[in-house]
Structures are given as C-alpha cells and as structure tokens.
Sequence to fold (412 residues):
Amino acid sequence: MPVRLLSADWVVPMDGPPIHDGAVLIGADGRIREVGPRAAVAAPHGVERERFPGAALIPGLVNTHTHLELTGLAGKAPEDDFPSWIRRVRALKAERSQADFLDAARAGLAACHAAGVTTVADTGDSGAVIEAMAGAGGSGIAYHEVFGPHPDQVDESMAGFRARMASLRQFAFARVRLGVSPHAPYTVSGPLYAAIAVFAADGGFPIAVHLAESTAESELLQGAAGPFAEAWAARGIPVPSLPGRSPVEWLAQHGVLGPSTLAIHVVQAGARDIALLGLHRCAVAHCPLSNRRHGHGTAPIGAFLRAGLRVGVGTDSEVSVGALDLLAEARAARALAGLAADAALALATTGAAAALGLEREVGSLRAGMWGDAAVVGIAGARAADAVLEAILASGPADVVETILGGRTVHRR
Fold:
C-alpha cells in the first residue's frame, strides 16, 4: 500500500484542537505517521499527495451499535408496540437465507463506509457480519447473539453457542474481533446469562447486551408483569426469580457487568443503576433515534457522562431508524444532554472508541493510530468552532471520502 499524505482546509484530530490547513501522513502499514499543519508534515519521496479543499479531515467514525444483517428491511416493521415489533422482526429474519444475510451485511457495511464510519460494533445471530467485515478488511467487533429464556434451555443454548463461536473464529483476525451478546433480559434466562458471563471471561470475549431498553423489560424484572411476562407465561416459561430488581441490577446479580461489557440503550436507568454501571466500569451504546422511534423514553446520557461512563452513539438497525446516519445520532444526543459540539462529536469518535476498548487504535488522528479518516465537506466554514458545527451538522451526502487503514473504502 502506498504512503499517503492527505491534506484539507481543516484537520480535526479530536484529541487536540482543529488544525487549519492541516495534513495527515499515513504509512504503508496503514498507521498514521504524523499529523499537523501541512507545511510542517514531512512528505517522503514517492508519497501520494491528496488535497481536499472545502473539507475537513476527521477520524473515521465509530458506530457502537448496529444490526447490519437487517439491512434492507427499513419500513417493513411498522408496529408501534415494542413486543409486537420484535415478533415482526423475528418473522422477517426467518424469511432470509444465509446468503441473504451476507448480502445485507455487506450492503450495511458499505452504507457505514459511505457515512464516514470505519469501525462498527455489531450484534446479530446469523454470523454474516463478521464474515462481511473480514472479507472487506474491516474494523470492529461482531457480537454473536445467544437466546434462551427458559432456564431448562441453558445446556442446549450453550452447546449450540459454543459450536457457532468456534466456527466464527476463522473470521476474527487483524482488526476484526469476535464478541458475545446474550441478547436481552426478555430473551435470556438468568442461568444462561451466568453461563455466558463465564464463557466470555474464560475466552476473553467482550460482551454486548441490550439492557433497560423498554418499560416492558423493567416490568418483567421488577414485578414479573407486563407484555413480556404474559408472553413467557403463554409459552410455559417461568418468570425471572427474585422480582423487584431493575434490569441493570439483575444483570449485575448474574455476573454480566464488567469493564468489557457494552450496555446497549439503557433508557430505563435511575441513579442506582448508573452508579452500578460505574462501579463495574461498563460502557454504554446510546441510540437516541431508535429509542425515540420505539417510544422507550429518553436515556439519561447527561448523567452517564457526569458519572464518567464511557459512552458512544450507535445507529441500531435500518428497521428502527431507516438510514444509518451516525452524526444524526450525535446531534440527537447533543440536544438531550446540552453538549458542546466537540463533546457531541466525541460520542462518534474518541468516546465511542473508548466505549469499545479501542481508544488506542481508532477514534482520533494521531501518530501510531490506524489511518482511519473521513473527508467531510464543511461548506466554507472558516473558524475552528464553525468547522466543528459544520461537521456535526453534516450527513452521509457530505462525506467525500472514507479511508480505512490507509485504504479508500468509499469515494463520492
């Protein structure tokens, strides 16, 4: 791969102030060698020089929650009631073949690249996304889902899960990591959560879990009531033992929370829950547009940040939000928490990378980091503050080029 010298009207490294007329030098190994003012960045012999006028060069965006295997299903699950919506999504998935899932995953990954996203944290049970990421030389974590709400299913669920994880290991190499995802408290029993926590710890796998997303989930765990409890009773599944705990408390009880745990959504969380997440050093994937679409309420993102939790934004799936626009999620989070532009952008860059434990690899532009970048049109912004606002206001249509490890993966 050739050495590349990229320059733009502005370079926004995110771990330092914006640089006017800046440049980024990416080596043949795909790592950043130097970042600074264009006049100060040395250009070695034979370097490929690329100039992007009217644009800002930013770190490749980091999407902390996707379901790329569901790409192409936008608008096909219009149900407003969340349990009914879930049943509809399950039916839609049942209609897809493995080849369909792989095509969807590839299309979803391409859509992420077109939106300036270079690293994704995906959850799914088809195994298609990690295959698509590996095939594209991608970056991120594919959390493989496991289900089993009946306590008697633990051995069966774990046997199938172990076999599937073993088969997916072939795709986990270079910058693609395999993780585990015990789906949610309304689809996974307490004993299965405990078994998965041990499996993850023994294998060194990161964990992602949908948590405290809806009032129906809270009703199930706090009072053994609500639509999920009714659905379990209809299927002969015993309701969770020891009701009266919040979803966060319930997962802590089963050993799921820890520094490598990514808690997704976390809308129904009070002060005790936030303190518990902080105690276990968990991270949060915040998906404000998905939360809004399903009427879950407003996640306390401001409280998360004040508590020192690692927080990134995610797009969730096309089924929930339509187009995968990560900066739209950052804008929504900004409005909820009253954030400055740089803090909102951090939710899709430095903060998101930290939430995934990848802050030493991606999320900012500095020497030694991977050469992941997005070139974004900034409509003539001339001052640093205006540049940050222009980037935050942008969308996929404003992305000129996306670079992953020094390779162009999208060009408008």
